[in-house]
Amino acid sequence: MTSHNMTWISYPSKSQPFTSPEEIEAIIASQNIISRFMHCYIAFFVPLGLIAGICILIIFIRNHLQNRRASLDLLLLHFTISNIIMIFLSFTVISRPDYLPATHLACSVLSFSFNFGYFNSHYVFILALLTLLLERFPPGTALCKATQKPILCFGLVLTYTFCLSLTEALLVGADNYQLKTDCQLDPLFAWPEYEIVKFTFGFGIPSLLQILCFTVLWAKEAPAGAPALQQHILTYPAVYVIGVTIFICRLFYNVMILFRTTLKLQRSIGTTKNELVMNIAEIVLFGESCTSLAVILFIHKPCRDEVLKVLQKCRRKTHASNHLEIPEQP
């Protein structure tokens, strides 16, 4: 593959000579919007996602130790770990509307870690969908038996996502690794092929598989004795809610990724408005990780039942302590 010289590229907010009052006002307004989105994400979504993620880990690990092992729960545990990694990496947006200063090498390492979590979470979710689909339409084939071996599935997904992440790290480019840059988790200085590969394998293929699973679920007639479709969805609502959330948020982000590729191929840095929308899309993507974990905690039945148990215990303790209080004598 031909190496690209990407030294010409830079962020519009850092490269254009703003002379007119209108341009200065536009850049200030853009940075204010980015800053507000960032503060909203850090103040609300990050605590929600981390608290939900920790609670899910505790519940699933305890259930696993008590031999209450369900394939779907193990897949959602893997999905949770991937999203927690993405949430921690999302702290790189704290400096917005400015960017994280780092060397090209350090930015490439951050990008590799981010892509590993990004690819991993989506493909593990596809496995969870496939598990539900085969549970409803059991074919009795090797594929069905394979889904009953979560360790084998995890190994295949981890190997595949590692290779994809390594490919993306190579497409970031190895030139000028010691130079300082403004770093995003999807680096601006990456080659155009970086975004094309990310869109194809990180959104296009998994989204097609996701749509295929939903289509089979809705269109294919269930075998005799299988629960009705509505009952099946109500049994596993968290998975289907997450599926819709992932598709919407990642569609927005990947459209912006492709748009940025178009600008690179035209050797254009774009406008401050393009930069604003790209930053919003990145924060929306991180918000999806937090939202997905909250959905698992509050909607997935094993987690929801544990949350309700804890709330009931707290209510009983509060009720008991109120009864133990001795009223003051007049």
TrEMBL record:
Q: Which residues cross the membrane?
A: 41-62, 74-94, 114-134, 150-172, 196-218, 238-259, 279-299
Tell me yes or no: is Cytoplasm among this UniProt entry's keywords.
Answer: no
Q: Is 4Fe-4S included in the keywords of this UniProt record? A: no
Protein keywords:
Membrane, Transmembrane, Transmembrane helix
| Protein name per Swiss-Prot or TrEMBL | OPSG protein
